[in-house]
Every structure is written in C-alpha cells, then in structure tokens.
Amino acid sequence: MPAAAQESVPTSDGRAGATGRIDAETARRPSLDALARLDGSEPIVIDGLLTEAVWLDADSAYNFTQAIPRDGYPASERTVVRVLYDESTLYIGAMMYDSDIDARTIPGLEQDYATHDSDMFGVAIDTYLDRANGWLFGVNPGGALFDAQTFNDSRYTNRAWEGVIHVRTAILDNGWSAEFAIPFTTLRFRPSRDAQSWGINFIRRIRRLNEDAYWAPLLRHYRVHKMSRAGTLNGLQNLRQGRNFSVK
User: How far is CA 108 from CA 119, 126, 140, 178, in A?
Assistant: First the structure.
C-alpha cells in the first residue's frame, strides 16, 4: 500500500497515528503462538507450498513495518508467517504476497548468498530468551539458504556456522512462499523447561523497492538479529533436544 505523504506523531504506546506511521523504538513487541502438531495429524511435506490444513489452524504473524526506505510505515506488500512444531522439528511457513512477482530479484543460488542483493525472507530465533543471542536463517525465492549464529545483541555474527535445516520455496501467481523444517537438534535451548517462550523476529526484503520490513518493528540501523527488540514465540511445550549426531 502507498505510504502516507505526511508523517504523524506516534501515540504514547508506539501504535500508528492518523497516517499509519509508528515509532519502532517505543512500539509494543508482538507475540505469536506456536501450534503443536499432534500424533496422527497430516504430515508436512517440505515443498514450499503451504497446502497442509494445519497451517490454517496456526496463529499468524503479519502487519510488517518498514525500517527502510520509510521507517515506521506499513510494508508495501503483505507477509504472513505461521509456526508449528512436533516432537522433533520446528516448522515455519511464510507467504510473501507480491503484486509484481515477475520483478523478483534472485542474484544467486549459492549457500550463504548475499542477502542484501536479493529478495528474501528471514527469521532470527533466540531460544534461551536472553534477548542477546540467536540463530539466523534466510531464504530467497529461488530456495538459496543463508544461516548464521548471532551474539551479544547483534554485535557479532558467525556466518561460518552451518546448521541442518530443510527449506523449500515456491513461486506463485500472487507471490512466493517458503517452508522451513528446523530439527531441534540443530538448535540449543533448555529442554528441562516444560513450557518455553523464545525470542523471534521475521524480515521481508523486496530488493526492487529497496525495502526491509520487520514483524517486530526495528529502527533502520538495526538488523533482524537485534534480539533485544524481537517479538516472542509462545506455546512451546515439552521440547526434547535429542542426540546431535549425523553420518555424512
């Protein structure tokens, strides 16, 4: 949607004023509930298509806010994200609506591609809810994966880290979609806690518009892994770490 031509003064709790602009620094941090997949439910096929019925039952994250080019204004294109989990895996499904999908930008398909040169959807996850450290995953419409660890509230990023993760994307008439399956063995958290909340934020990048938009609003000089300003993922129950062992 077009940004308003005149900026407004944000309300005291950071919500949008008359012209739709918010103050990213004072805006409330959003929250999202993860939905547990029960035994015997329809399996999720990681094909980039959010066709399984369980996706529609899950809580949704939307109302992304631009950090650039027009900080505080609604994103120009709609993004909807949902989170599921079962005993072994965290699932993230995202639909990136796009009114001009043929203008998408995919400069490369290599591992750890240059995310700033590409359309992209990404997620940062703070599994200890320490508001400082986390895991970062990003994908472009062609399915190229970027992954990293982040420390000390976005001050340090370890791009050399490689996690086991399954991701697929799909190009649709009205945009593109992505499905992530992140095994709990890839992450680190406190399995001794029966109920958990994690820090989380999502980014949508539209390269042709030079636009970065976030679910939990951020100032333009921050990145999605600024975990002190992230939202919260609730509803995680009885998680088990499992054995971090693989054969290649």
Answer: 11, 28, 9, 17
Q: How many other C-beta atoms lie within 10 A of the C-beta of residue 12?
A: 8
Q: Are 233 and 198 in contact (CB under 8 A)?
A: yes
Find the helix or strand (DSSP H, E) in which 221 lies.
Answer: none
Segment holding 85, helix H or strand E: strand 79-85
Residues 157-183: tens digit of each pLDDT: 898 898 899 999 999 999 999 999 999
Reduced to 3 states, what is the DSSP secondary structure of residue 116?
Answer: helix
- The set of residues, in sequence order, having a beta carbon less than 8 Å from that of 193 and lying 6+ positions away, is none
Token reading at 62: 């939307």
pLDDT, tens only, 199-215 = 999 999 999 999 999 99
Q: Measured between alpha carbons, how far is 224 from 169 in angstroms, rounded to an integer?
A: 21
